[in-house]
Design goal:
single chain; Jelly Rolls; globular; binds 2-oxoglutaric acid; binds fe (ii) ion; iron; oxidoreductase activity; oxidoreductase
């Protein structure tokens, strides 16, 4: 048990009071009930302190993940006109291709000045947004009519979408146990799969761009909107998390792990006992000795699977997070998951 506990608590990031553990999710599926509980508590504890955790043995095979990265890279390599023909339309749909400069991620307090911010330092990224299949009037913008590669893309992403849905359920089961709720407490709240799979491509950028504009980033500081985000990074790095001291700390990629972070809706659901922590993406850290190298920063690819409770799920303070026993009132009024998401998306596009 002792070795098991220390493995659960391995540290991935520990800087400026920001501690992000690396947790082996395996024992949650295969361990004894007490192993399972220990994993659940460790994950919940991480969400309550930093809002972030690295997970290994999460159940999505590395070969599947590399297949999704490859398919994503082939998609972004298509001619701009093809990608534009699959363009994102509305926050209600939130499906389709988003060209560089269209979305500006920002913090909640910045949304009043969204247009100025977008103009001065647009995010240097393009994305492809994929949603649940079969929603009346909101089709995914698949490239399957273009060629065989487009058909492969559709199949790969549909299958990955389902895996993300399952992992969402499992992590919510861990959170339920960690919050002293029944293991299956959230199952019915996340069984529809109203999630959003976002493929991201940060193209190569000249070092001058970052030198000349101190506000330039690849993706602006923000918190995520939903319950949790499953983030798959390539090896380049550039993701940073806001520490309690206010600094940005690198969340360096670790092979065969994913970064999972809590979103605003889970923070709200937990009456702010769980934290939705701000993060951003900048240029990758320069390898040592490369200070005078003036070649471009390399491209970076990532996959963000935004998990969202079912659209019609009412989000209000969970049992145990308010009331006399804990001496805290409910901090927020009830809102459905779907209404909340559309509100947030409307501000950033
Ligand atoms: O690309 C990344 O590593 C993070 C992207 C992100 O935070 C987001 O799209 O919400
Ligand atoms: Fe994010």
């Amino acid at each position: 048990m002792a070795s098991n506990t220390s493995e659960i608590n391995a540290s991935a990031v520990d800087k400026d009071d920001l501690k992000i553990p690396l947790i082996d999710f395996g024992p949650f599926f295969t361990g004894t009930p007490s192993d399972k509980h220990a994993v659940a508590l460790a994950i919940t504890d991480a969400f309550k302190t930093s809002g972030f955790v690295y997970l290994k043995a999460h159940g999505i095979p590395p070969s599947v993940v590399s297949g999704v990265f490859a398919s994503s890279a082939r998609f972004f390599a298509r001619p701009q006109s093809e990608k534009d023909s699959l363009g994102w339309t509305t926050p209600q749909s939130n499906r389709g291709y988003v060209a560089i400069g269209r979305e500006k991620l920002m913090t909640v307090d910045e949304t009043n000045g969204a247009d100025t911010l977008r103009a001065s330092a647009p995010d240097i990224k393009e994305t492809m947004e994929l949603g649940r299949e079969g929603v009346e009037g909101l089709p995914n913008r698949w490239p399957d009519h273009l060629d065989d590669e487009g058909k492969d893309f559709k199949e790969t992403m549909q299958s990955f979408f389902e895996m993300g849905k399952t992992l969402h359920k499992h992590i919510m089961q861990a959170i339920a146990l960690g919050m002293n709720l029944p293991e299956h407490f959230f199952d019915e709240s996340v069984n529809i799969g109203d999630n959003n799979l976002r493929l991201l491509h940060y193209p190569p950028v000249s070092k001058e761009v970052f030198k000349n504009n101190p506000n330039q980033v690849r993706a602006g500081e923000h918190s995520d909107y939903g319950s949790i985000t499953l983030l798959f990074q390539d090896k380049h790095g550039g993701l940073q998390v806001r520490s309690p001291k206010g600094t940005f700390v690198d969340a360096t990629p670790i092979a065969d792990t994913i970064v999972v972070n809590a979103g605003d809706l889970l923070a709200r659901w937990s009456n702010d006992t769980i934290k939705s922590t701000r993060h951003r993406v900048i240029q990758p850290p320069a390898p040592e000795g490369s200070e005078n190298d003036d070649s471009d920063y390399p491209a970076r690819y990532s996959i963000a699977y935004f998990c969202q409770p079912n659209n019609d799920q009412l989000i209000e303070a969970l049992p145990g997070t308010f009331g006399e026993e804990v001496q805290v009132d409910k901090k927020y009024s009830a809102i459905t998951s779907g209404d909340y998401l559309v509100q947030r998306l409307t501000a950033t596009y």
